Amino acid sequence: MYIGVDYYPEQWPRERWETDLQLMKELGINVVRIAEFGWSIMEPEEGEFDFRLYDEAIELIHQYGFDIVLGTPTATPPAWLIEKYPEVLPVDDHGHVIGFGARRHYTVNSDVFQVLSKRIVKEMGKHYGNHPAVIGWQVDNEYGHEKSDRSYGEVDEKAFQNWLEKKYGDVQALNERWGTVFWSQTYTNWSQIPVPRKVYQEHNPSLLLDFDRFCADSYTKYNRLQVETLRQYVDERQFITHNFVYSGLAQDQKEIAKDLDFISFDNYPVWGGLADPISPAAIARQHDLCRGTKNGKGFWVMEELSGAQGWSQIGYLPRPGHLKLWTYQAMSRGAEAIVYFRWRAARFGTEQFCHGILDHDGKPRRKYDEVKEVIDSLRGFADDWIASDYSADVAFYHDPENEWAWQIQPQSDQFDYVKEFLRFYEPAHAMNVQGNIIRADEDLSKYKVVVVPIYFLTKTGFNDKLKKYVEDGGTVIFSYRTGVKDEDNVVTDKTLPGELADLCGIEVHEYESLRENKSSQVKGISGPLSGMEATVNVWCDYVEADTAEVLATYNDSWFQDKAAVTRNTYGKGTVYYVGCGLSPEMMNQLYTSVFTDTEVPFMESAENVEIVKRNCGEYDYLSVLNHDVEKGHDVSLPSGDWTDATTGDKYSKSLAIPRLGSVVLMKKK
Ligand code: GAL
């Protein structure tokens, strides 16, 4: 497998390069990513190319026996470019131009920027496309990150209008679908349609959603421009990837991924001023998103955090063991290669406090030793392990368009898309259920349960697919705010949950947004929730059960006759509706019952202990990952004789895992 570092030779004196490479050699890495921010070095003046610095670095890296991933440098357009073509700069929603001085200061909709990008990418491709050490390319760096996903300038507006014309053909059709009769917004010409810059009130939600779709499409096209350019000049053996982030950007990673050989991801469980890492489930969700982006294909972690991160703020210092734990977690969930960010902390520039394997003084210490331990620990089994299958019993539906619709109208100050998604993902993760994050186009029949959380913006095709899946015996879990909107981001005229009402066997006549400090109470009255009471927040759908059985009602003097959680039989299958932001305890109880009924395998483990299964023809693998920073735990193992894949130690029945411990066990089938 590939394991390596992100290296910035341009930031260090040449005299240091060999020391670095020697230290890398002793560390045991085999790949180095470079050059993704080196535009002004490779093209110091327009049209003048100078590859000497990277030529020299690449030759040396090659001599040390490492393979190389080259980044195209378009995330950092140089000063000469901005001086000459200021129209390349993005514009924020207040109409302010985002200036030169950081990175990602371009709009993908600028024709000039596209031409200039194509040229540098072409020159790099011509220059390095046959180099034996170069195994592949990372195009650009983290599309859309740092709020660069949406730009509101004139070029963007023109491109948006063209995009709309292509989509709707006739401006009257757009008027009807967006409902522009509201507030006298009827358009008579494409040129009147604005990008959603600041207004007194809020924009039309249909315009906002189409704007997000347009921004996403623009990035897909921009990525394609780079990929197609590279493909003309580089060897077939060289792969092309991009390092994604998944944080609600106006971006469709799955669409972009169609043009890539595989996707990459930057894994920062803790960043900047964060006081603590995000939860194990939140990290796992990101890996599952990565695996789902190219239909289950493995991915690279192109940046795996190796030290405390921050620009002007520094947060949590990863504890000894975190580095290995997060590496093993990523690999358990589909990462095929790990590249640590960064080799050494920079002494200058914005990222002075992005610590690396080495810190500013360049001396190998604790983190270096820890990376070495990780590499050594993987040596004997990693290739087979990463080639093994990850199979899933449960699917979690995620669609960026639904996420954008929520961003446009969160409806409660307590609503956060990821938090609410996790409300439905986390209990399954805690039970060590194997899950995939899927889109609407996927085959549902291979899953025992499909969880469709906060399905606000619906798609008729997917609704029909869900009905068929349940008719044939599948189990679906829906949540509050299901079925509210159609694809135009217009509210349905059907009684809620709209197109899904008969499937759920319920109607929702009234609902309530629970804002800060507001909550309600529910009580379980039948089935798995009997006798339980819980506090709920964020949202209450006051549900009228039609054919559905009521599992919980509101414990509230006004709405006690309304259902909070229901279960319906439809065809051969079962549909649950969770009408409110249920507490984790009740969610756990519900999931235990659902997974037992549907025969989804699950494994109990202490809180913060994550177990992931993989298998291949010969072996079952079990990763045991203890995210607990305070204490070790005993973990019950599935039957059979298990062997620690690194040490060869044998276990059966149970394993004591220390705090922040991570281990992969193997069992011959
Ligand atoms: C990533 C980015 C890197 C570096 C890193 C800092 O988002 O790709 O270039 O900025 O964060 O932690």
Output the radius of gyration: 26 Å
Low-confidence stretches: none
Structural class: alpha/beta
Number of helices: 18
Main sheet overview? 11 strands, mixed
For the record, what is the CATH homologous superfamily label of the largest domain? Glycosidases
Kindly report how far apart the N and C termini lie. 24 Å
Helix content: 25-40%
Work out the count of structural domains. 3
CATH C-level class of the largest domain is: Alpha Beta
Bound molecules: beta-D-galactopyranose
Give the CA-based shape.
globular
CATH fold-level name of the largest domain: TIM Barrel
Can you count the beta strands?
A: 27
Determine the mean pLDDT. 97
CATH architecture grouping of the largest domain: Alpha-Beta Barrel
Query: Strand-residue fraction?
Result: 15-25%
Question: Secondary-structure map with pairings?
Answer:
Elements lengths: L1 E5 L7 H14 L3 E4 L4 H4 L9 H12 L3 E5 L7 H6 L26 H18 L5 E5 L15 H15 L2 H8 L26 H29 L5 E3 L1 E2 L8 H5 L6 E4 L12 H14 L5 E7 L16 H11 L2 E7 L24 H13 L3 H6 L6 E4 L2 H9 L8 H14 L4 E4 L10 E4 L7 H12 L3 E5 L21 H4 L1 E8 L6 E5 L8 E13 L3 E6 L8 E8 L2 E6 L1 E2 L2 H14 L11 E7 L3 E8 L6 E4 L5 E3 L5 E2 L2 E4 L4 E7 L1
Parallel strand pairs: 1-2, 1-9, 2-3, 3-4, 4-5, 6-7, 7-8, 8-9, 10-11, 10-12, 12-13, 13-19
Antiparallel strand pairs: 14-16, 15-16, 15-17, 16-20, 17-18, 18-19, 21-22, 22-27, 23-26, 24-25, 24-27
Helix pairs in contact: 5-8, 8-14, 10-15, 15-18
Beta-D-galactopyranose (GAL) binds next to loops.
